[in-house]
Design goal:
421 residues; alpha/beta; 6-stranded parallel beta sheet
Length: 421
């Protein structure tokens, strides 16, 4: 594909890696975001996303193939525009205001022959029922006739060193054959392989299926972990044994809960759509939500029990949380179970400290949590240590050596003072 003018609306965990990769592939890229502080950091070559290094950002800035901007006028003249903005839940209802705002902005600069692709995770029907009318209303053009439109779900996995944006197959779709070809051609210029599907609703559902599959299976092993402990059975040994089966089983492991955008939120989009359109409840999703949402509470109950056995109360104890991110080697603290664990412990009167070299500063973390560096001194000073994210930066041997009591939610430690959920 020849060099094109590309606008990526949204410069977060999805949009920034996409913008950088498009620039590296030879396109002229505008990284548009309404957050002016974020744009200032990008213009200075400062990355805040795990999958983009400052060196990569500085290189494309110096070459001039990437321009971060919060000025809507910078979107003018685009050949390809991608909407990669957040889609949070508000009181259990999808909040699509960021998609709507981005679509209205792009509509003002939409020209005949241009292409718009939506990447934000959402319910089936959003591309054709919401984005298309907004683009048509704001531009006076007709989708599928005057401009091309499609959906390609993001598959970003922050911190994954094996599967990157480039190497992960990209599902692509369009509202008609011409739109599919334009969307496919763009993504083919920046990723190794594409997976075309017949309709945007199929692509939208595929994304929700991927995350719902993980969400439900994690909930299964989380509930198994709770009951196996009560029955005096080592759930981890059982998982290892089941994993020896070469067919018909896929390994999932328990943890302190789920985090990020995908698992705590995305399946609820599908549940909401089913309820809204069909008047029925998606029971698997609702049950998985209930189980996974309560895992931080279970972690705290196990911690309280562990301290009680050591004749200590949570009130007045110093608790060191290792890991504020929702997953290993990531700085992403969105919907992290650590937030709930910290909040419950603070309510009980504990002095809560937290170490996480990846989550440098995050407004989502309660300000009453004292941030500390990982060290033997901090481990020794704590009445209890809770391993929530098993970052490589944490010396596991040092934890076992210096901590008086450890609750390991990731099954990484072994020692006389270590308990595993």
């Amino acid at each position: 594909m020849k060099k094109q003018r590309v606008v990526i609306a949204g410069q977060g965990y999805v949009g920034l890696p996409l913008a950088v990769r498009a620039a590296q592939a030879g396109h002229s890229v505008i990284g548009y975001d309404v957050d002016d502080e974020r744009i200032k950091r990008l213009a200075a070559g400062e990355s805040y996303v795990d999958d983009v290094s400052c060196a990569q950002l500085q290189e494309i800035l110096e070459v001039g193939v990437y321009q971060p901007s919060c000025d809507p006028r910078s979107c003018g003249g685009f050949d390809i525009a991608v909407i990669a903005v957040p889609t949070p839940l508000r009181d259990g209802t999808p909040d699509l205001r960021y998609i709507e705002d981005a679509a209205r902005t792009l509509a003002r600069y939409l020209r005949p022959g241009a292409t718009v692709a939506l990447e934000s995770t959402t319910y089936p029907g959003t591309t054709t029922e919401l984005v298309a009318p907004l683009l048509e209303e704001g531009s006076g053009l007709v989708a599928g006739v005057d401009f091309h439109l499609g959906y390609s779900p993001e598959r970003i996995d922050p911190g994954n060193r094996e599967w990157s944006l480039t190497s992960t197959p990209k599902v692509v779709s369009g509202i008609n054959a011409a739109s599919l070809e334009r969307v496919r051609a763009f993504y083919a210029s920046i990723v190794d392989s594409t997976v075309p599907v017949s309709d945007p609703k199929v692509a939208e559902l595929a994304k929700l299926l991927e995350n719902t599959f993980r969400h439900v299976n994690i909930a299964l092993v989380n509930e198994l972990a709770v009951y196996a402990h009560a029955l005096g059975i080592d759930v981890w040994e059982a998982i290892d044994a089941a994993s020896s089966k070469p067919f018909g089983f896929m390994r999932f492991t328990p943890g302190p809960g789920v985090g990020g955008h995908c698992l705590p939120i995305d399946p609820s989009y599908l549940s909401w759509r089913v309820q809204r359109t069909l008047g029925q409840s998606f029971r698997f999703v609702e049950l998985a939500n209930d189980i996974n949402n309560h895992m931080p509470d279970y972690v705290v109950r196990r911690l309280v029990a562990g301290l009680n056995r050591r004749r200590k109360a949570v009130n007045g104890s110093t608790i060191l949380l290792l890991g504020l991110a929702y997953k290993k080697n990531s700085g992403d603290a969105r919907e992290s179970p650590a937030r709930r664990v910290a909040a419950l412990l603070l309510e009980m009167g504990a002095e809560v400290r937290a170490a996480d070299p990846h989550v440098v500063e995050d407004a989502r973390v309660d300000q009453r949590v004292t941030r500390v560096a990982f060290s033997a001194e901090q481990l020794s000073a704590a009445d209890a240590v809770v391993l929530l994210a098993d970052h490589d930066a944490f010396d596991l041997d040092q934890i076992v050596e210096h901590a008086a009591y450890v609750l390991d939610t990731r099954h990484r430690l072994d020692g006389p003072d270590v308990e595993t959920i």
